[in-house]
Amino acid sequence: MADKSMEGLNDFTAKAESKVDSSRKLRVAIIGCGWIAGSHIKSYLAQPDVEIVAGADLIPGKAAAFFAKYGVEGVKTDYANDEELIADKSLNLDAVSICTYNRQHAPCAIHALDAGLNVLLEKPFTVTLDEAVEVMRAEKRSGKVISIGFQPRLDANMQKIKEIVQSGVLGDIYYIQTGGGRRRGIPTPFGTTFIEDETAGLGALGDIGCYSLDMVLNAIGYPKPLTVTGYKSAFFGKDPNYCGYRADKRAEYAKKFGVDDFAAAFIRLEGGIILDFRIAWAMNLDTPGDTIILGTKGGLRIPSTECWNGTVGGPMKIYHEVCGQQVETEIPVIKMNQGLFDLKIRSFLDAVKNGTKAPVPTSQILYNQAIIDGIAKSAECGREVEIEIPEI
C-alpha cells in the first residue's frame, strides 16, 4: 500500500512549538466573513508573524462588522467581492483564507492563485470534481501554496491511525467502514447558507463527510477511487416539523433545504480495497457505527464520536494474533496540547514562508472530492458510476 504523503505530517506539533520568526510578517486577507472565519481570525491573531490587512464579503458591511467584533483595526474592507480585494495591489498580500460558502470556493481560489497569492481554502475543497480540477490547474499555473482546511488530520490520534496502518501490523487492507454523524444536527444557527443548494451545493457530505473520508483515505495512502454506488436523502431537512430547527423558522428552513442530510456509499478503491461509508446531519440513531479498518493480519476499531468532531471517541483497539493467540491491543487516546485550528493555520504559514509543500495538498483531496462527486452523481442516476478524473 503506497503512502504518498507522510512528508511533514508528523512534525506539525514540533513546528508549532518551535519559535516563530516574527521579523518577516505575512500579509493576509480573509475572504468570506461568516462563522468559520471567526476561527481563522482568532488563530491568525495568535501568530506573531501575521498582519491581517483586508477582508471581503458579498454582504455590504459584514466584513467591517466582523473585524470590529474581533477588535482588529486598520483592515481594508471596502470591497464588493473577492476580485476587488485581490486586484488591490496596495495590499501587498502574501496569502488569503477563503471562508466563503461552498459554491464560492472554486472561483475565489482560482482568482487568488491566478493573482499569485497563497491560499488556505476551507473544506469542502469544492462542490464538484470539475471545480476541483480547475482549482488545481490554477495552482499549477501559479506555483503557489494551496492547502485545504482539514484540521482533523493534524490530531495526534489521526496521525496514530495512519502510523498503525502504515506499520504493516494490520497486513493488507481490504475493507473499511467509516462515517459518522449527528442524531439532530442540521447546521442552521447562522442562517441558511449551509442548507440552500445555491450557496452550499453539498450538505452533510461536504460538511463532515469529507472529514471522515480523509481520516481513512489518508491512513491508507489515498489510493485512487474507481467506482461509487451512492445514496443521499433529505427527509429531516425538508420536514417542517424537524425539531432541530428554531420553532419560528421550521417552515422557512424546510422550504429552503436543498442539500443532503444523509448519504451512504459503497466505494471501490485501487488495490482491491472496499470502502463502506455513511454520514448524517440527522438520523434516528446515536451513531452509524465505529470506523473499522480490516486487514489480513489484524483489524482496527476506531470508536465513533457523538458528533463527528475530528478525533476519536475513545481508545482504539487492534485485533490481531500473537503466537497463535487472539489478542486485543488498546491504543490510549492522545491528548493534544494545542488546538487543531491553530495547527492548521501555523502549518499553512510555515509552508508559505519556507516554500514547502502544502500541509494538506490538493493532489490528495482531489480523490476525496471525486468520491463525494461520485456519490452525488450515483444517487441522482440510481446506479454505480465510474470515477474519471481529468488530467490536471
Alpha-carbon Rg, integer? 21 Å
Mean pLDDT: 94
Shape: globular
CATH architecture call of the largest domain: 2-Layer Sandwich
List the helices and strands and how they pair.
Elements: H1 12-17, E1 26-31, H2 35-45, E2 50-56, H3 62-69, H4 82-87, E3 95-98, H5 105-114, E4 118-122, H6 129-142, E5 146-149, H7 156-167, E6 173-181, H8 204-219, E7 225-233, H9 250-256, E8 262-269, E9 273-280, E10 291-295, E11 298-302, E12 316-322, E13 325-331, H10 340-354, H11 362-381, E14 385-386
Parallel strand pairs: 1-2, 1-3, 3-4, 4-5, 6-9
Antiparallel strand pairs: 6-10, 7-8, 7-14, 8-9, 10-11, 11-12, 12-13
Model description:
By secondary structure, the chain is of the alpha/beta class. It has 2 domains: 9-152 and 340-360, Rossmann fold (3-Layer(aba) Sandwich); 156-335 and 370-386, Dihydrodipicolinate Reductase, domain 2, CATH 3.30.360.10. It contains 11 helices and 14 strands. The protein has helices spanning 12-17, 35-45, 62-69, 82-87, 105-114, 129-142, 156-167, 204-219, 250-256, 340-354, 362-381; strands at 26-31, 50-56, 95-98, 118-122, 146-149, 173-181, 225-233, 262-269, 273-280, 291-295, 298-302, 316-322, 325-331, 385-386. The strands form 2 sheets. The protein has a 9-stranded mixed beta sheet with strand order 13-12-11-10-6-9-8-7-14, covered by helices on one side. Strands 2-1-3-4-5 form a 5-stranded parallel beta sheet, with helices on both faces. Helix 5 (105-114) links the parallel strand 3 (95-98) and strand 4. Helix 2 (35-45) crosses helix 10 and helix 6 (129-142) packs antiparallel against helix 11. The longest helix has 20 residues, at 362-381. It is globular. It starts with 11 loop residues before the first helix and ends in a 6-residue tail after the last strand. Mean pLDDT is 94; it is low at 1-17.
